[in-house]
Design goal:
414 residues; alpha+beta; nine-stranded mixed beta sheet; 39% helix; globular; disordered C terminus
Length: 414
């Protein structure tokens, strides 16, 4: 299978994305191929690493790439011995023909192997943080789906480094829920199992089928928020005597005119709750005080005003008290939102995904996969600031080749 080959290559490549791309089937006819698919995709990845955000910018960058980059990525040489870049039309044709889901699976397997995602042991001596994966969807607002609407991509990303390790297109006239099981099953198949991992998601995925899949089939755990879209479950948990439950974890944060206090209360899941695998339920309360400036009536001056808000969130988890203490539950809930802050936001702001004019066929998905790959390569190399790292890459071919997992040879210099 294609995805299995990608997973194997990712494990042995030591971070070399060209070897990862070598496992992707080339959709072109064999006759007349001058550049391997892995070379073309490697050059496109290098272009995105160098800050090129549109397909036109990518093809222009590839056409004028430095000799050391072209050679390192395996471009063919002409009679004079110089490496030749693929023609822009070739790159665009590959984007149009490529199997987007196969590419996403291969790249996800590569990043998952580098992140060490797989089965983990159950805590025995004391509760501890387990490897966690967030599942969330994102609209690709610059694209047009098969139904003429904005398409959505459902992704799974690691907590912490925030690296996308699986992604699927949400079907036309559908929602994220039907793609949840294929997303997690495919991920488990590519990494050899996810037993013991923790999956976090928003309230839209708090459904019995997902809980059963995670706990019974994948032998993993879930941490879910519970809202009124699951009215019966919400009513049962909301009716518990939370006022009599002591606060077992609390955090405070200050900065930028904002003070936030978070508290957490935990109870053992009540008998007869009827939710698969439920072990604990919890209540998180957030109290926020923001200082803002408001115009003073009748003058040009401003006055500082404090705005206070309070939000309560209910949750449910398959993790028992032996497997997760209150501080761990709080960490899983906060860690979930890294997929929004560190991936979706970066794709929209740094890579201007919502403004992209790549609209139809598989092209917008190929672009999204390359962005996920670039974010993952940068983060897994230890760089936390994506935009700043991209600015460095533009003037440092050695850093570019290092992030691609390639070595620069002296004889490759022009």
């Amino acid at each position: 299978m294609l995805i299995e080959r990608a997973a194997v290559l990712a494990r042995v490549s030591g971070g070399n994305v060209v070897e990862c791309f070598a496992a992707i089937d080339d959709p072109r006819r064999p006759r007349g191929i001058r550049h391997p698919l892995a070379t073309i995709l490697g050059l496109c990845t290098a272009a995105v690493l160098a800050g090129q955000v549109s397909l036109v910018e990518i093809t222009d960058w590839v056409a004028t790439a430095a000799q050391e980059v072209l050679t390192a990525l395996g471009c063919r040489r002409d009679a004079a011995g110089r490496a030749r870049a693929p023609h822009p039309d070739t790159v665009e044709r590959v984007f149009a023909l490529l199997g987007a889901q196969h590419l996403a699976d291969g790249v996800g397997a590569h990043l998952a192997a580098r992140a060490g995602v797989g089965c983990v042991g159950t805590p025995i001596d004391a509760p501890r943080m387990l490897p966690a994966v967030a599942v969330d969807g994102k609209a690709v607002r610059g694209a047009i789906g098969a139904d003429g609407q904005v398409p959505y991509l459902l992704a799974a990303a690691t907590h912490g480094e925030s690296v996308v390790i699986a992604e699927r297109l949400v079907g036309a006239k559908s929602n994220e829920v039907p793609e949840f099981a294929p997303l997690l099953r495919g991920l488990a198949a590519r990494v050899g199992g996810v037993g013991g991992c923790v999956f976090t998601m928003d309230a839209g995925h708090t459904v019995r089928a997902h809980a059963r899949l995670i706990t019974e089939e994948l032998l993993a755990h879930y941490v879910m928020t519970v809202k009124e879209n699951t009215s019966a479950l919400f009513a049962r948990i909301d009716a518990l005597d939370w006022a009599g439950v002591p606060i077992t974890h609390q955090t405070e944060e200050r900065g930028h005119g904002r003070h936030e206090r978070r508290t957490l209360r935990v109870l053992e899941a009540p008998a007869g709750l009827g939710f698969p695998g439920a072990a604990q339920v919890f209540l998180i309360e957030r109290y926020t005080t923001r200082t803002v400036r408001k115009p003073t009536k009748g003058s040009r001056g401003y006055k500082k005003v404090q705005i206070r808000t309070a939000v309560a969130v209910l949750g449910i988890t398959s993790l028992s008290a032996r497997e997760a203490a209150p501080e761990h539950l709080a960490g899983y809930v906060r860690g979930h939102w890294s997929i929004e802050n560190k991936i979706h936001w970066v794709r929209d702001v740094t890579f201007r995904e919502d403004a992209s004019q790549v609209r139809t066929a598989s092209r917008f998905r190929v672009m999204a996969t390359l962005r996920n790959l670039v974010i993952g390569l940068i983060r897994q190399a230890g760089h936390t600031k994506i935009a700043a790292t991209i600015r460095k890459i533009r003037n440092d071919p050695h850093l570019l080749l290092t992030l691609l997992g390639l070595r620069q040879h002296p004889q490759d210099n022009p």
